[in-house]
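Lecture 7, part B: from sequences to assemblies.

Below are the input chains for today's worked example.
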Amino acid sequence: MTKQLELVVDRIKCDGRGLCAEILPELIRLDSWGYPIVAPGPILDHLVGLAERAVDDCPVLAIALRRTQAPKAKAR
Amino acid sequence: MKLLSGPDLSLGPERLAAHVQRLGPLPQGGHALVEVLVRSGLTGRGGAAFPVGLKWRVVAAASRGSAVVIVNGAEGEPHSKKDRLLMASRPHLVIDGALLAAASVHAREIVLCIGEGHHAARRSMSEAVAERADHERRMMRIVAAPARYVAGDSSATVHLVDAGVATPTTTPPPPRERGVGGAATLVQNVETLAHVALIARTGVATGTLLITVAGSVRAPGVYEVNAGTTLGEAVQLAGGTSSPARAVLLGGYFGQWIESGAAWSLPIDPHALRDRGLSLGCGVIGVLPTSHCPVCEVAGIMRFLASESSAQCGPCFFGLRALADACTRIAERGTDPGDLQRLQRWSAEVQGRGACKHPDGAVMFLRSAMKTFEDDFAQHPAHQRRSA
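Predicted structure of the full complex, as structure tokens:
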């Protein structure tokens, strides 16, 4: 199986600062209250760099990249 | 053999000597019992209906002799009374189940989490613990769970035992893999453990369930019914309806609404209900009379669920509040098409976006209400304020 990455938000840590959605609008949009909604599915190769930046720049360290185990992993 | 067999419930907690005389000594826990539980098909009675034997297998495999058993008697569901009745009347059945669990998953400790307001249950359980043999008693301690809806979440019980704070924590990993102090932790509802105490003695499923019948029935309360009993029969056990019924809320505040016409023939059986897309949840059967306005009722419950958010996850804290406010506006000022659209949109935004299942349960409840009471939501008049 090829290596696939997905973004995972720790809902308790997340404060809704919104930087992730600014950095990676292709995959992250904000809900009505400013909290990130991450597009499901693995991250396409050309977006991995931006996803890493979204992870590194989160002021409360609430978002992480995770290697998906199963080919049909569900992301939220 | 039933959970509530034995002396009359009004006599209070059954003492250890009477319990042993009636049911015999505590059987052996261990691998064989886990397999009996798997075959018995027993599912958790706290609400999630997770297969018990499978959960015990996972904890036993992860244990290394250091596992913890949490007996979940928080019972924060507003109308549910079954767990506190069981603890207050058959404490040794629950303790037997907990000791069997500890032996089967190689646990070193048993923590009894009991709702702080369940006074009779706490007294009964602490007296029952004191009656036990030294080696059993030394394993057990009692922790008071705050009277909050989310306190019964399994990760919240672990958080309570670890840090004294009964709020859910981020999962995965689930408590069964990493719980109290990092050890594999079995969190099991008190009724489930009482079933285990009987199954360990007979080898077969008890075939009964504890339900709480609430709302407009003549004799609301806890009843033990055979699996497959219909909702109509359960309501008859509770003395029948006290006024014409409009709908039934099955499974408590995380449950689903069913029009009374379609409700009465439904079987009270976790597996049969799951096949119909329903769930018995914690076993509360709430009957809504035709004299109550469903929209106002739903708005009141949504306000409760919003206020019971542990305020840790934004989508739950803000989202449930927004949903409750929109329901309340419709209840107080009348239907507004914009609010109906917002309810749909916000429900979708909130679903699946909490660390625990609190927002999901609230949204499932609201969606089922908006489907069952579609016409009422579509044409609710203004200024018709009735509280639950």
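Note for the exam: Chain B has a mean pLDDT of 94. Keep this in mind when comparing with the next example.
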